[in-house]
Amino acid sequence: MGRVSYYLRNGSWHIYYRDGERQVRRRVAPTEEEAARIAAQVNSQLLSAAPTLLAFTPLGVAELRRRFLDHHELVQRSSLATLSRYRAATRYLEDYAAGLSPAAAMAHELRPQAFVAHLRSLSVAPNGHPNTARRPLRDKGVRYILECCRSMYGFAARMRHLPPYAGNPFAELRLDRMKLEDAKPVFVFDEAAELAFFRAADDWAFAVHFTLAKTGMRPGELAHLLVEDVDLDAGWLHVRNRPALGWRIKTGKDRSLPLIEELVEVLRRVIGARPAGPIFLRRRYDPGSSPAGASDQSALVRLLEKRAAAEADLAGRALTRAERARVARGVWRDAGAIDPDQARTAFLQTTRAMGLAGATCPKSWRHTFATLLQDANVDPLIRQVTLGHQPGSPGSGALGMTGVYTHSRPETQRREILRALRLWPLSLQHARDRARVG
Length: 438
Known about the structure:
The protein is mainly alpha-helical and 438 residues long. It has 3 domains: 5-47, no CATH class; 61-177, no CATH class; 191-436, Intergrase catalytic core (hpI Integrase, Chain A, Orthogonal Bundle), CATH 1.10.443.10. It has 17 helices and 8 strands. It has helices spanning 32-47, 61-75, 80-98, 112-120, 139-158, 191-200, 203-215, 219-223, 261-271, 297-315, 321-334, 340-354, 363-375, 380-387, 400-405, 410-421, 425-436, and strands at 5-9, 12-19, 22-29, 123-124, 135-136, 230-231, 236-239, 255-258. Strands 1-2-3 form a 3-stranded antiparallel β-sheet, with helices on one face. Strand 6 (230-231) and strand 7 form a beta hairpin. Helix 2 runs antiparallel to helix 3. The relative contact order is 0.09. Belongs to the 'phage' integrase family. InterPro entries: DNA_brk_join_enz, Integrase-like_cat_sf, Integrase_catalytic, Tyrosine_recombinase_XerCD.
């Protein structure tokens, strides 16, 4: 048919043509009628010098996933946490494709609807531990997996691993309309529950969770705070990226948080006379017995470089980002920094002792903080800056271009946040009493 031939081979119809200097042979259809239609379409595209229907490099799902993750590791330099989430989510698709025939396991042949049905049939351990009771994937988990697969197929289209006239098959699922019927409810404290929690918490847990409640920080941010990040006299705390120490903020953006007087008193007691090191230390940690005890950021960086160089010499090559991050975690541990999981454990122990079954995650403090700011009618831009959320792109809703042109002064942010926190005075009085004991 013009410059294109179609023929039967091994029970399927194939086409053959030359695209410039490149020979193209593809299996295209189970019937001669469909093969003839595709051959006619490709011939028309060749005559008009348009990209042909089959002008792409097909890949299996496993190879596509490998290249996608390599792109984020080597080109995009995405955070290790983002890479870990992409790796875990797309593993579901690779495992599913491994059970298909070789032809059906090609990325451009995969059927997203069938994959969704597969996800709905799975039972998983919620935290990945083999001894945890298994349950079906929640709607939110299914949607996240599909969102990651959609990103991977967007990469495939850009790299010409999908037919040029085919859209992203995962984009057709309309994930924004997927109902989240079994989503785990978010627990938001009220003033009475907050006070009850703080009264039930021991001194270590109280300091950690009072700080989370009155700043809206993420637990990982709190775990990586150093004494040099806080100015207690001025009443400000600075959340900073620490790339030299293998850690960065989720959004990659530094921010400053105003401190209410009661939290300043709590932090003074937590820090004591220590001149440097993490603000919040693990239980029963002795800075004097550790090589990184009471070290400032410069000293911690030097220790990390020394350990990383020793490991690189031992391995006979440069460390990967993941290996360097492991060394960095060891430095933070030796410096006494808490593990965010310790904060979660203390949270669960306290809520269970109270009989507060609905509260299972320290992230409730961040939700509560944001809700309190809403109750106090704090300006949306100040809320966004304080919580460290990524601003919307111009014209994308929320504040849009207005947010680009509006700049919140520190004194305005401080006034508004402290005004909101004063709406719940009971826990603040409890903090004052507790900080002054002893």
